[in-house]
Amino acid sequence: MRSRLAARIKLLLTLGSLVGIFTLIPAQLISASAATGGNSQNATPTAVTAATFSLAPVLTTGSANPGAPLSVVIAKKSSVLFYLKNYGDLALNSFTLSQSGSGANTVDIKICTGGTTGGTFATTTTCANTGVLTTILSGTSGSSINYTLSILVGATRQLSETDTSASNGVTNTVNIAVARSDARAGTVTNS
Amino acid sequence: MKRKFLTRTSTGIGRTGVRVAIFAAALTGGLALVSSSVFASLTATAFNGTPTSVTAGTLSLIQANNGNGFTTSIAGFAPGDTVNRFVDYTNNGTLDAQGLTLSIADSVTSKMTGDGTIGMSVLVSQCSVAWTPATGVCSGTTTSLGASTALALKTTPLALPVIPLTPANANILAGSIIRLKFSLSLPTGSEVTTNGVLPANTIQGTTASITWTLTESERNATTTNS
């Protein structure tokens, strides 16, 4: 009898201890690991768009970005007009123009400077509005130049290409490249 | 004098039965005594006439644009550009806080926030007084909270050791305002666009939609005797 009573009391004590342990342990864990945090974030995300710098040679001012060099057939000792169009988001201050063609052809790339209306040509060999015809590149296939010229976003600038070789017409290709350094310099904006 | 003694009788119950009955009665009485001593003790109570009022502290961080802040979009962001945006954070809770961190999320997968070389970087600075957003001038003391870091490299929250640094583990006092400038920049890079075709792996034309989350932690728990 006594031993049974003692065994039951012992059992009750053991169960009580276990209940106590399982009650205490979670409380200790919570107090140790559950630090409270507060945060704040912008309800409307900040939309960011990177600019582009992009210039391409085209035959008309309304052309969509061709994404390709401009190849033109130039008759012997004749000229063709073409445009450089700024398709990017940044105004450009300069560009690198290179030309290539078949055989030993030579070409002159010319531009109208000065004058009163943005360097347009009157004919393939003359400038309009008192502009001055200026050769910016003269040479054989593979020649290139980095030329300083301001071209605003969406704007075009007219150039001419003249065959100066003795060949009976050549197919000449104009490539235009712009680097980050050809666009406006980096800016710091506070707002 | 003749003494009378109780004599043992011999009944149907028998000697053994009597012993059992006596033992049972004794056991019952004993158990009753034991149980009453365990469960029926006297108690006395005392309590406070005025209840103890207990209020849990709060932790709350709110932000307010100073100027365009994070609300206005950034367009035409060119390599080499820096855009400064100003945001004030107030510890609006009743508890002091610590451990301010910055986390960034971009809902658009882009090189802007995913490329550690050509993508965007951020440098956070603190001014002891309000920034002038139009000029970016801090007329008080400016403190850079770390170095400029590419967003793509922020796989874990960026610690912002705001001023004051003390008291330790509770330096963001309840009610205090943290006035921050976020300088966002794109590295200059060396990209070349040919005949209107953007180069491969370009940052040009990419977009991001950024959520800036600042988090403060509760000051260290304290034990108060009073």
Walkthrough of the structure:
The complex is a heterodimer of chains A (191) and B (226). Chain A is of the alpha+beta class. Chain A has one helix at 2-33, and strands spanning 37-41, 46-50, 55-58, 70-74, 79-86, 92-101, 106-113, 132-140, 144-151, 156-163, 170-179, 188-190. Chain A has a 5-stranded antiparallel β-sheet with strand order 3-5-10-7-8, with no helix packed on it. A 4-stranded antiparallel β-sheet of chain A has the order 4-11-6-9, with no helix packed on it. By secondary structure, chain B is α+β, with helices and mostly antiparallel strands. Chain B has a domain at 61-189 and 208-218: Immunoglobulin-like (Sandwich), CATH 2.60.40. The relative contact order of chain B is 0.20. Classes of the chains: A alpha+beta (191), B alpha+beta (226).
> Strand fraction band of chain B?
25-35%
Q: Can you name the CATH architecture of one domain in chain B?
A: Sandwich
Q: Provide mean pLDDT of chain B, rounded.
A: 88
- Largest sheet: number of strands, sense, barrel closure of chain B: 6 strands, antiparallel
Please count the helical segments of chain B. 2
Q: How would the global form of chain B be characterised?
A: elongated
Proportion of residues in extended strands of chain A: 35-45%
**Structural class computed from helices and strand pairing of chain A:** alpha+beta
